[in-house]
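Problem: given the chain below (353 residues), write out its structure.
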Amino acid sequence: METTLDPSVLRRRRTIEANSVVTRLGGVLCVSLFLAGWIGMPHALLDAPWVRLAAIGGLAEILFSVVLAVINLRRPNGRHYERFSTLGVVSDTIAIAGLVASLQAAGQTVWPLLSMAILTAALRKQLPGALLAWTVTSGILGVAVLVHGDQAMNPGDLSVAVLSHLLIAILSGTQASAYGRQVHELNAARRQLHHQASHDALTGLPNRARLTAHADALTGRAMAVLLLDLNGFKAVNDTLGHAAGDVVLRAVGARLRAALREGDLAGRIGGDEFVVVLADASPATAAALADRLRALICEPVDLDGQTASVGVSIGAAVRAAGEDADLDALSRAADAAMYREKSARRASAASTS
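Solution.
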């Protein structure tokens, strides 16, 4: 199962995971060369069992992190993305801390490498992740000093390592958190602008552009279009005011949303006109919905102690599957049907008066 994310979030995730794959593969190469005795410390270090064990364990953990990064790179919107990202950070932290602690125990000064684990955690998990990585790496380094004493590190150097890495964790974590908040705010603003560009500000219903995009996605499928025009709406505006008219329009919009099936879409195209696009709809389906909407829209609207009522004229046009009539063509046909209904209603009212 995948989640819908902003494109900028997906791009950022892909960039992070691609970099992670490259850097982790670099780590695999370095550890492999170290185990072969070709780079790094004196070859005699490999005779120390804890060094070789830490290197082999670290290699396995980095390879595990590479697999997680590849999965996340392929599916940056997968539901397990955050879980795999966290597991990768934990695996990286343990691998780096274990290898550094074993080399420190062998008398080599490599503790600055622990900052890599902290920076990686800050990039992915911001300040909480950076502080957690600092806690884990400092704890593992402290255990190495307790077990091996001054051979691993003297207490003064341990204090310098712990405090300097705390500073790195705070600085990198706060910067990553600030960047994360900024990205979140920009994405929220982008979503709001996109919504404003594709929806009616008063009712919250989709506008013509959004309806057109939805109808285009139904190309080749059966589709029905209902065009609705409110009757008596001008009288509401004239007698009760435009604020009351706005309340009526919002109520009509809410009733339209409540009456639709999943996959259908209702929008306001201006004034007191609304359009409903029905996916995979037959003439009978369109007629049944039109009857239901007439009954719903005619129900009184509460206006803080007063009520207002409007009627509605509805025209329908239906496209069979495989036909190529677009939204504009169906809207014109529905508009003509709607005006025929209005004319029939007026004629009926005139004959009974």
